[in-house]
Structure formats: structure tokens, C-alpha cells
Amino acid sequence: MGFELLRREVIDKNLCCRCGSCAGICPRGNIVFTDTRGACLPQGSGNCPETCDLCGKVCPGGHFDLSPLRQISGLSFATGIGACLNISLLKAADKTLREMSTSGGAVTALLIAFLEKGLIDGVISIGPDPESPTGSAAKILSSAEEIKAHTQSRYCVCPLNQLMPKLEAGKKYALVGLPCMVDGLRNMMEVRESLRGQVVITLGLFCHSTMFYSATEKLLELYRPPVARSSVKNIRYREGKFPGGFAAHDGKGGATEIIPLPDYMQLFNRHSLNRCRLCIDHYSAFSDLAFADPFPFLDELAENDQKWTVAIVRTAAGQKFVNEVLGNDDHVVSKKVTERNIARLNDKLRAIQSVHLKQVAMTKQIGLPAPGYNIPLPRSTLPRAVVNLFRVYLFGNIMLSCRQMLLKVCTLNQAGAAHTKLTKRYKSF
Ligand SMILES: Cc1cc2nc3c(=O)[nH]c(=O)nc-3n(C[C@H](O)[C@H](O)[C@H](O)COP(=O)(O)OP(=O)(O)OC[C@H]3O[C@@H](n4cnc5c(N)ncnc54)[C@H](O)[C@@H]3O)c2cc1C
């Protein structure tokens, strides 16, 4: 049955999360992602043997077992912050790297430190597409320079786990990915033991949702002053002071304006994947180390020092890696956070998870496809489910608008009049 089953149960039901695990596990290389700037769905060549069901087994889109009985890397699913041996703020010690990065550049700085200490030989991650800088591509990086060039979040779908067959035997890798990519990798490790020895550490990013390439198209369309598509050399979704914004560079070094993140947050609603709306693992629950923006801790940070990354150590393996580089290394600086803000973050994540769990339950109740998590879901009557589903979407939009307004207030001080001008200009979102 092979790929046909995956098509029927996941792709046709709009539950694919574009993590690339199906392509990465296929022993015959039968599955490819072609339309990466469009729907970016896996395509099968139709030569699957009757007995092979590996792609369906590793796919976290249609089904991801979160029951307490399932231990993944020694972890079972927990709501809120999840498994946490330690939580702190980290930033790259190198000021230039920090300024180039998304939050505090901790992910990039840690990867470079791991590489230089010989803990890993390479990094599996996402960065600019060498064939077209407005696109994103999955790559294996093996030098500090390459890792540095891949700093920054890219809000664009990209099937990372398809790279697994390219890993070299005997080498050790770190994977940086979204929660679905880490979950897909964990599934892959269960069916292909050798991957455990190859991907020795996973760095998971918090992720509320990612977006189709169409969102990048929209950003380029709205970017002022306009940059001809052919002359764009580099795009960055989080340029400038935290939280930063979208910028397109033509490589000539002229003055650049940015579209602030708060101004383009709405794109996440319009261009995100159906599967992201039904995700309850926004916090990379099964990564060794999880990373996030410092929004929950901004009240602990000086206004001119907000570029920090929230870092959660989840596993003993993660702790071992961090211990190797923190304290006796000049790549990363750390800072403690207050218990009060940790508790607030935990409550906030729990609340968001509960809304998403309700969304999954209601989607199922009205007969639409939703992923199976093998955990109890909240129940209500059918008419109530319809009303609630509508309310959740509405509530989600209101929450997003509030967050946007809050972010605008935060960034207004930094960007001042120019920001206000931009906000007006991009009203057309
Ligand atoms: C799509 C997406 C959604 C996110 N949503 C949230 C959120 O809702 N809340 C929150 O707190 N944080 C979110 N993050 C994480 C946050 O934006 C930062 O990535 C995180 O704080 C680490 O910052 P940093 O400066 O340490 O990372 P950097 O040093 O800038 O390094 C970023 C690393 O991420 C890798 N990367 C970039 N894009 C992708 C991608 N699409 N998929 C996989 N790997 C990628 C890069 O290769 C690089 O290694 C999101 C990130 C992404 C990519």
C-alpha cells in the first residue's frame, strides 16, 4: 500500500505538516517534494511494495501518539512548558551574530560551540535557498561560517527530514527544527535505529505555525522601497532590534526599511497550514533543547538589551551538551529568569494548548479530519461543537490582534515615527 495509504490518510485529509519524514525514511527514494513554493506536498512515484508502510509509520501529521505509555527519548507528553531540567535566557556573546539572529542568536552560537568542541560534525537545518534567495532550503552544514549564514527564523515551509538519507555514516549531527520535524524524527528513530547514533542532539524551536511560500511573496510585494525579485540577494524575516521585521536586501547596501513583525503577524493566519491549527506540540516537547522568543521575559530585560533566546533543557543529553559549552566557553552568555515569569509562561502555554485541544476535539466531532493523539479530548454536544469551533477561530483572531497591538506598543518606542508610517502603509494586509 505504501505511499497510497499516506496520500489517503494524511495528504488528502489536509493533515500533512511538510516535515519531510516520509521522504526521508523511504528506502527506495520514491517520495519527493517538488512544488516547494506552492502546496509543498510529498509526491510518490507509485513503485511501493505491498508490504512497505514506513512513510505512514513515521508521519506525525495524521497520527502522533502522545499517550503517557509512549516514552520518546525518555520523555512523555506534558502540558505547559513540558519536561524541563533547566530554563534560562541565553544569547550569543558575539554582538554581530546576535544582531543578525532572530532572538538572541543562542541557537547559532550553541551550534558553533558544539561543532568546535567536536560534539557534532554537522548541522541539519533550514536557510536561504542557494538557487533563489527568497526561497528556503534544507541543508547539512559543516562549518561555523555556514552555520552563521543560516542564523534567523525562516517563516516558510520546508521539508527538513527528507535530508536523513544524506547523513554520512559514522558522523554526528545536530538537528534544528520545528516541533513537527522533531516529532517526525523521533518516529523515524523508532523504525531506523541507526538514526539515533547519527542525530545526537535535537534543537527544537517553539512554533505557533509556519507559512506557505505565498506569505513571503506577499511580503516581497508589500516591501518598500520595492526591490526587483531578480535583484534580491537576501531576505530576513526578523531583521533589526527585537522583535525585528521583514527586510529584503539587494546586496548593494542601500538604506533598508523593514516590515515590523507585529505588522505582518496576520499573515500567519492567512497563509498557515491547516495542520498547524490542529497542532498541540507548539513547544518542541520531544526535543533535547527547546528555544523561544523572549516575549514572556521582556519585563526582566533592559530596553536596549532584548535580544535573548529562551532556552529549555529537556533531556539529560541536552544538559550534557549545554554543560560542555556553558561557563567554560566564550560563545554563549546565560541569564537566570524569575520563577514568577516561568510560572506565567507555563500557565500561558497550558491555556493555548487547551484551546488547541478543544479545536482538535471539535473538528473531530463535526466529522472533519484531525490528527489522532491518543489522549483524552474534551467533549461536548454536536451543536455546541459547531458553535465552539466558530468561537475558537474568532477567539484565536482576537488573541492574535491583541498580541499584535501589544507588540506594536513594544516596538513603537524603538521605531518611532517611521514605524507608525509603516503601520499605515501596510494596512492592506
Ligand atoms: C516557523 C517558525 C515559527 C516560530 N514560532 C515561534 C513562536 O510562536 N513563539 C516563539 O517563542 N518562538 C517561535 N519561533 C522560534 C523563534 O523565532 C527563534 O527561532 C528562537 O527564539 C531561536 O532564536 P535564536 O536567535 O536563538 O535563533 P538563531 O540563532 O537565529 O537561529 C535560528 C535557527 O533556526 C533554523 N531555522 C530557521 N528557520 C527554520 C525553519 N523554518 N524550520 C527549522 N529550522 C529553522 C536556522 O537554520 C537556525 O539554525 C519560531 C521559529 C520558526 C522558524
Task: Please describe what this structure looks like.
It is a single chain. This protein is α+β, with helices and mostly antiparallel strands and 429 residues long. The chain is built from 15 helices and 13 strands. The strands form 3 sheets. The protein has an 8-stranded mixed beta sheet with strand order 5-4-6-7-11-12-3-13. The protein has a 3-stranded antiparallel beta sheet with strand order 8-9-10. Strand 8 (234-239) and strand 9 form a beta hairpin. Helix 14 (339-365) crosses helix 15 (382-425). The longest helix is centred in the C-terminal third of the chain and has 44 residues, at 382-425. It binds flavin-adenine dinucleotide (FAD). Flavin-adenine dinucleotide is lined by residues 101-108, 125-127, 150-155, 158, 160, 176-178, 205-208, 210, 291-293, 309.
Largest sheet: 8 strands, mixed
Find the structural class using helix and strand composition: alpha+beta
* Uncertain stretches: 411-429
Helix content: 25-40%
> What best-fitting shape do the alpha-carbon axes yield?
globular
Q: What is the average per-residue confidence, as pLDDT, rounded to a whole number?
A: 89
Strand runs, count? 13
How far apart, in Å, are the first and last alpha carbons? 43 Å
Question: What ligand species are in this complex?
Answer: flavin-adenine dinucleotide
Number of domains: 3
Assembly status: single chain
Radius of gyration: 21 Å
The CATH class of the largest domain turns out to be: Alpha Beta
Strand order of the largest sheet: 5-4-6-7-11-12-3-13
